[in-house]
Amino acid sequence: MHKAIIAASLVCLSLCRPAAAQLPESPLAAIAKRLTQKSAAASGVPAAATRFRPTGTRLLLGEIADTLTEDAEKKKALRTFLEEGVKDYEAAAAKEKRENDVAAALAFFVATQWSVATGKTLEEPAEDALLAQATSVLSTPEMKAAPDSDKQKLYEYCVGMAVFVVGTREVAKSDPESYAGVKTLAAGLFTKMLGVEPSQVRFSASGLILAGTPSPAQSSQSSQSSGSLTYTVPAAWKETRPPEAILFSRPPQGDGDSTSYNLVLLPRTPKQGSLSQTFGLIWKQLVAPRFNTEGHQPFPLPYRTPGGVTLVFEGGYVTTKPGGSGRHVFLYLVDAGS
């Protein structure tokens, strides 16, 4: 399904400037970035949370066309192209019983932008895993409670921009400079949606994985412990023990991986109320004083690992105080019991 069938004329696309339409002004767009933060797993919210009842009219396709070109005739042609492309996608989605589904649209968008940007193709097991992953990540209480119109706008953005990028790639194949521009456009759309560059992720039968994340076979076999928590240090990671904390760090691994990671394991903290309430207090004590979160109020997500460990987590892109460099910061609070 992720390989959209484009049946409309592509002539108009060569006349449109390769600009990126804006994401809908909705908190739902921010949820998509969680695709890079956790793997596919049961979320406790039914998959129906990602479905919506269509309004009967398109809500965003016209706005996308208006963003991509200023010429009235080109806008008309582009709207027709996008409409036909979305219809082709919807026909394919209906065959797999994923019609009117934001998760399927997001998976289609991610797979398309990554493939165009990198020149690589996702294998079918990776596509299936990505769809399951997107369904899990988007199956949240806020998605379930969101208005159908908000879901439809995000859906139209994902499908519409995937259709546009595939179409422009076909037009640009004979022009190396234009083709490079389409790849840059796809990479920009991917990064805007997920908060990471295409080169920073890879796809496998486990879904989308951040580059440099080791497979189980790559992990070292030695286990360490801190209090009642037992852990295994993966290969390529270094463990140090400054006072009152344990620091794990991993430098860039090359081959497109330019990201450094630091993880701090803090001392055991008494639970104060629920796990989410304790998370809020620790966020105020540790994160808020050190980073400019721009008024971001944490919404800790509960998660239970296959091994039965319960935790909550939340985070995002912030800057260090005062006015320092930007980075992704996340806080994970593991329930170690009483």
Give a quick precis of the structure.
It contains nine helices and eleven strands. It has helices at residues 27-31, 61-68, 72-95, 102-118, 124-138, 141-145, 148-172, 176-194, 275-287; strands at 201-204, 207-210, 219-226, 229-234, 238-240, 246-250, 261-265, 291-292, 301-304, 310-320, 326-334. Strand 9 (301-304) and strand 10 (310-320) form a beta hairpin.
What is the fold's blueprint, element by element?
Blueprint (H helix, E strand, L loop, with lengths): L26 H5 L29 H8 L3 H24 L6 H17 L5 H15 L2 H5 L2 H25 L3 H19 L6 E4 L2 E4 L8 E8 L2 E6 L3 E3 L5 E5 L10 E5 L9 H13 L3 E2 L8 E4 L5 E11 L5 E9 L4
Helix pairs in contact: 2-3, 3-7, 4-5, 4-7, 4-8, 7-8
Describe this structure in words.
With 338 residues, this protein is α+β, with helices and mostly antiparallel strands. The chain folds into two domains: 11-210, no CATH class; 216-334, no CATH class. 39% of the residues lie in helices and 18% in strands. It has nine helices and eleven strands. Strands 8, 9, 10 and 11 form a four-stranded antiparallel beta sheet that branches. A hairpin with a 5-residue loop joins strand 5 and strand 6. Helix 2 (61-68) packs across helix 3 (72-95) and helix 4 packs across helix 5 (124-138). It starts with 26 loop residues before the first helix and ends with a strand. The relative contact order is 0.13.
